[in-house]
Amino acid sequence: MSSELHQLTLAGMQQAMQSGDASSRELTMSCLQRINALNPTLNAMLLVDEDGALASADAADAVRAAGDAGALTGLPMAHKDIFCTEGLPTTCASRMLENFVAPYDATVTTRLKEAGMVMVAKANMDEFAMGSSNENSYFGAVGNPWNADYVPGGSSGGSAAAVAARMVPAATATDTGGSIRQPAAFCGITGIKPTYGRVSRYGMIAFASSLDQGGVVATTAEDCALMLGAMCGFDERDSTSSDRAVPDFSDSLNQSIKGLRIGLPEEYFGDGLDAQVADAVQAGIKELEALGASVTSIKLPNQHLCIPAYYVIAPAEASSNLSRFDGVRFGHRCENPVDLEDLYKRSRQEGFGAEVVRRILIGTYTLSAGYYDAYYKKAQQIRRLISNDFDTAFESVDVILGPTTPSPAFKRGEKSDDPVAMYLNDLYTVSANLSGLPGLSMPCGFANDMPVGMQVVGQAFDEARILAVAHQFQQATDWHSKMPAAV
Amino acid sequence: MALTPDEVRSIAHLARLGVDDDTVTEMAAELSSVLALVEQLNSVDTTGVEPMAHPDSVQLRLRADIVSEENRREALQRPAPSSQDGFFLVPRVVE
Asked: Is the pTM of this model over 0.90?
């Protein structure tokens, strides 16, 4: 059994520890061995903290022996390398932060540490969270465990690949335009982006401050609920943190979905949707109907403007957030700067990769004098319309369902020459970020032997409901328990 | 909206980002294709629509004006490329 411990879910590992079948140390060792074996091929992890992990595991075992174990005590996990972890490198997969050792813990880091989770590694990602394929990492691309020639999605590609490959049962991730949900779909796992404001952004290196949210990837909705619960909650250090009470997501997983009203946006099922993805999602919808949910067609009339609006707003906010990387207080500094301007320009040119540079330039342009109204203000008005579309839809349905992505994972290199083609991966995901709503992706089938994900979007602060929908689906189907044969 | 290499240089200057002459043409083409994508925003009349800067759930909080964070200058300054006596060092600015 010991060699297969890494295949257990968080819930399975919890049970193993509770029954005495495995210690946190044994679970952690199993994950470390798995990472050693697979990371050379997949490149999912940037840093493995073996000593720290074993020390945490031993401490967790001691807490359990003393009778003080909580739900998450001793469970191994990984952090996307966007969360500050004190004393350890936190790179955002960028040359800019290659040697940055975080001087403090992110709130997410602190909360999961206090809950007793064992951090095993920092996961690879697209640089500064900008990307949909994890091909934009300064430390090399990540492979999809289902087929290493294919991308795992992004920007949380490392987190998703690690979980799909059973390197760790769960990992933190972040989502600004789909960066949790899209890699979860591409890797055949479950991922949730909560409502904006649920998870503190303190210590979570910023890309687009009005869109970024921390969340979880795991193999099941049950595991997502468990971990997300410990991450959510008011944080006075994040001025956008919500003080809304956080329900116990695990408690409500079994709430019946009989009579649940599911809305299917017509715009999600038109041209551009891969036929096999459509089939897998339609089969998923039938399953939910069999569980008692009712399905109606709805309209999201401004859906076609989501990508344009996002690719003005996100780069604009990024250009502002990334202006702090100037070679002065932290991060990469160029050699022998002749003056201040040279210091800024060369440090930034050397530190940032191509996609990051593209987005900073787009953002700078759309915020500049003479263009602000035509682009940024216009995009914010479109954002309002997109959000209003959801408000209208939720007057008649409880949740909104559709494909997570228009197509399954593509081959590495296939879209990296065409930024706009890459951006279209986010077609169904950006609207949840623009409107601040919670979204979840769950596996529902395969297309060309690669996983397909189905997305549920809920009303603000209704994570419990979308987790319940996913959990009920996973009680009736087994897509979530399939493991890549390739690894 | 097609951008010229000179426009890209101006934008890069605003962003204090160095750009090389051998990549600026390609950058101009890529940025132009992104701008073409976002042109679609103009297809909808948004007169009178209130811009949305962040989700509606966000409300700016106020707190009491008291010191609540400890001084951690030494630890927080440790990642600096160049510092001395609590100051960050940069190339001479004032002659």
From this structure: yes
